[in-house]
Amino acid sequence: MKFKYIYALLTLVLALYFVPATAQTKHKGKKPVAKTAAKKPPLKPPVKKTVKAAPPKSSTSLSDAVAKAAADTTKKGKGNDAVQGNLSEEIVVTTAYKPVLADAVKIRRNPDLEDKTPFKAPLVYIPIDKRLELNTSIKPLDAMKRPAEQDSVPTNNYVKVGLGSLKTTYGEAYFANGRDNALQVGGYLKHFAQNGNLYKQNSAKEEAGIFGKSIGELNNISGRITYDYNSNYFYGFSQFNPPVTTRDDKQHFSTIGAEGELAKNYRDIENDFTYALKLKGYIFSNAYQARESNLVLSGFFNQTIKQFYAGLAASLDLSTQKDSDYSYNNSLIRLNPYIKFQGDNYKIDAGVNIVDQFGFNSAFYIFPSARAELQVIPKYVRIFVEAKGDVNKSSLHDFAMANPFIGQNIDIKNSVDQLDIAAGIKGTLAPGFGFKFTVFRSEIKNMPLFVSDFNLATGYNRFKVIYDGGRSRVNGLNGELDYKASEDVDVFARIEFKDYQMATVAEPWNLPKLVFKGGTVFKIDNKISISGTVTYRGGVMDPLPLTVGTVTRPISIDAFVDLSGAVDYKINNRFSVFVHVNNILNANSQRWLYYPDYGFNIFGGVGYTF
Question: DSSP string covering 337-397, please?
């Protein structure tokens, strides 16, 4: 049925196309008639007509029908409609439109009930309370610890014995309990004796002691007990004017000491509270009637607050001095409150030193106690200044250790450092090369001086102590250098120069203006160690009058150089041998008037560890 309708429509289209063409052919040669606009009929809604056309029987009948329709149109067409070949009647053929829709494509989607949302943990931000360091310089590497020798056997004890010229006898012994992080206990013994070339030029030193230290979780406790015994003879006299009689008596000094300390362990925490308490004392005596006892209780506490900390140091120093002519109580109380500021490039200490002197003499002092450091070249160079003062208590023990040829009834008077001012520079020039140089000025009241107290007629040849009663001024400088090229090479030097301006005495008796000491240590193949030291002491003067012709003047003691050395050879992990040489230049040096030192001497021995 569909094809029938299609053929009918095609026939109608062909008829509409060929009919106008035929009409134009018949009117050819005639004058065309003026065209008039055709009036369009009013639009009417199309009327749907259903035409039931019989299907053509064949293709011939269809063409005949088209030709017949064209002929009728030619005959009937007159006027304008005929000329233009338009149909006067419009035929509209319609059919019912039946749309055909394809089956709908349905999307079947089931919901996914599985929860695939990723879990995000809550973020917590904690700011770091740390200052940003903008230091781009090369930082030094931390020193690497030397690995322990695999074949070494831990040893806790050590013994050395030796013999030498000048009837030298030498011995040392050390004992300990071994490796223990919580408890250390040990002891030591020392002996050294020599007989010089001069009559009664004999001396000996003996030392013994035990010590211990216990380390707890919060505090550590340490203590020691010591005993020292030094002996010598008064062998000094003038070689050019020897006395008729000599008093070469024997002198000895005996000291029993003990000390104990309680201190808080160091902890690397902020705002830490630290403290320490120390108790020490000794009993001193000589071969005659001199006696001295001393007891010192000292301590401090300190509270750190960020970049500064405040604290208080205090001490109670109780002493008694006795001899055949006197018995004194000479004691001091010190209080030192302070506050300190410290940063990366600076350090400031500010405080006062309060001293109360009581006993046979009473006095009260307040001294400054301040120090400041500034880093001018990071990690390398610092400059510093300081100002301080203190009371220096006279001590029979200290006098005897400095000059073993003192007599009896030594005058006791405390000296006062009224104001010590110093400035300097210190630091590191290169890895292992450290230095420190200081210039200073001191004002001292009652400066103690050793002077001779000789009576050549009776053979009395001993020293006494006097004091410069006014304000003595000391200007000077000191320097230190220490160069450790490696573990096997170490070189050091110390120099000190002082210029004395005395108040009531003519000269700084027996005090040298220049002292130098240097030395070095070399190690070869971890078996041989070579060391050497050189000491220079400038000349001094003693008030003992010396008459030359008609001129009387104090005696001068020449400067001297002392050179010494030592060689140690390690045979194995237990045995070693050593050789020490003293006064290599064999200088006839005198540290004290008419008391020359020992000449050239050498001694050696063997050491054993176990």
Answer: EEEEEE-SSEEEEEEEEEEEEEESS-EEEEEEEEEEEEEEETTTEEEEEEEEEEEE---HH
The pLDDT tens digits for 233-254 are: 999 988 787 887 778 899 999 9
Q: What is the pTM of this model?
A: 0.74
CB 219 within 8 A of CB 241: no
Provide the greatest CA pair distance for the chain. 194
Q: For position 149, what pLDDT does the model report?
A: 57
Q: How many residues belong to the chain? A: 610
Number of H helices, E strands in the chain: 4, 26
376 with 402: CB under 8 angstroms? no
Both tokens assigned to 83 = 């000329």
- Ramachandran angles phi, psi of 184, nearest 5°: -130, 125
**Given the structure tokens 């004290």, which residue do they identify?**
592
* pLDDT band for position 140 (cuts 50, 70, 90): low
Rounded Cα–Cα distance for residues 303 and 313 (Å) = 12
Q: What is the mean pLDDT of the chain?
A: 84
Please work out, in degrees rounded to the nearest 5, the angle formed at the alpha carbon of residue 269 by the alpha carbons of 267 and 271: 115
Token reading at 575: 């045995």
Q: Is the dihedral of CA 226, 288, 171, 586 positive or negative?
A: positive
| Span 461-500, pLDDT tens digits | 999 999 998 899 999 999 999 999 888 899 999 999 999 9
Confidence of residue 179 (pLDDT cuts 50, 70, 90): confident
CA nearest to 218, candidates 156, 275, 280: 275
At residue 14, does pLDDT exceed 60? yes
Coil, strand or helix at 301: strand
Residue whose token pair is 């149109």: 73
Angle, CA of 600, 601 and 607, to the nearest 5°? 150
**Positive or negative CA dihedral for 232, 234, 237, 239?**
negative
Burial class (CB in 10 A: 0-12, 13-18, 19+), 394: buried
Residue 109 is predicted with a pLDDT of 67
Contact call for residues 310 and 336 (beta carbons, < 8 A): no
Tell whether the torsion through CA atoms of 214, 215, 219 and 224 is positive or negative.
Answer: positive
Measured CA to CA, the distance from residue 353 to residue 371 in angstroms comes to: 13
Is 41 in a helix, a strand, or coil?
A: coil
